[in-house]
Write a structure and sequence with these properties.
221 residues, alpha/beta, Rossmann fold, 2 domains, two-stranded antiparallel sheet
Length: 221
C-alpha cells in the first residue's frame, strides 16, 4: 500500500471531502470483509484518519466496531513511542501489549498480529490479563478497558516506576496518572496525552502523535 494512498485518506479525514470520503468508505467496508492482511490495512488507515481528527461517513453497518479501532490504535502506538534501552534490552526484544478488561479488543488485536507484526525489529506480542494481580512491569503497553476503570488508581500505583505506556478510556484517566486516553466524542475518537506521566515512565512520545492529540498535559522536553 503506497504512502500516497495513505496520505490521500488522511487528507480525506481532515477535509471531509464528500466524493473522496465516500469512495474511501466503500473501499474500507470492502477490504474489512476480506482476509486478515486486508482488514488490518483498512483498520490502520481508519486509525490514522481518526488521528487526523475526522471519521469518514461510513454506513452504520459498514463502520469498524469500537473494539476494532481501539485494537488498531494499540497496534500503531509502538511506532510513535520510544522506550528506554532497559525496557527493550535486545534488538529483537518483544513489545508486550497487555489488555485488561476488554476481550473484544484482545481478540481483534490477536487477529491483527497473527501474521507477525514487527516495529523496528521488535515483534509485537499480546498478553491477556484476566485479573489485576496478573499485571506486572513486564509489559511495554497496558490497555485498561472501561469495565475495569474502577481499578485504574490501584493499577497505576502497581506500575509506578515501570516503563509502561498506560492506555485507558475513562474521563479521569490522565488525572490519575495514565499516559494516553482514548475518548469518543460523537463519531470521533480523540487522543489525550499526559506528558508528565510519560516522563515519569521514561517514555518519549513522538511529535507526530502529539500534533493530533486533542489534549496534551505537561510540557515536552
Amino acid at each position: 500500500m503506497s504512502q500516497n494512498f495513505i496520505q490521500q485518506h488522511v487528507a480525506c479525514g481532515r477535509s471531509g471531502r464528500g466524493m473522496d470520503c465516500l469512495w474511501m468508505s466503500r473501499f474500507l467496508s470492502r477490504v474489512i470483509r476480506s482476509g486478515t492482511a486486508g482488514r488490518l490495512a483498512a483498520l490502520l488507515i481508519f486509525a490514522v484518519v481518526l488521528l487526523a481528527g475526522k471519521v469518514p461517513a461510513l454506513a452504520q453497518d459498514e463502520a469498524p466496531m469500537d473494539y476494532q479501532v481501539k485494537a488498531a490504535f494499540l497496534v500503531n502506538f509502538p511506532k510513535y513511542v520510544d522506550w528506554p534501552a532497559t525496557a527493550l534490552p535486545a534488538n529483537n526484544s518483544p513489545i508486550t501489549v497487555a489488555i485488561f478488561g476488554d476481550d473484544n479488543v484482545a481478540n481483534e488485536f490477536e487477529v491483527m498480529i497473527s501474521e507477525g507484526k514487527v516495529v523496528d525489529g521488535h515483534p509485537i506480542v499480546l498478553k491477556r490479563i484476566t485479573k489485576e494481580e496478573e499485571i506486572g512491569k513486564d509489559c511495554q503497553i497496558l490497555f485498561i478497558g472501561a469495565s475495569e476503570q474502577h481499578r485504574t488508581s490501584a493499577i497505576l500505583e502497581r506500575l509506578k516506576g515501570s516503563e509502561t505506556l498506560t492506555v485507558g478510556e475513562s474521563p479521569d484517566f490522565l488525572d490519575k496518572g495514565g499516559v494516553i486516553n482514548l475518548v469518543r466524542q460523537g463519531r470521533k475518537v480523540r487522543l489525550q496525552v499526559n506528558l508528565n506521566a510519560a516522563k515519569e515512565a521514561h517514555l518519549r512520545i513522538s511529535s507526530r502523535l502529539l500534533v493530533v492529540a486533542d489534549v496534551v498535559k505537561g510540557a515536552s522536553n
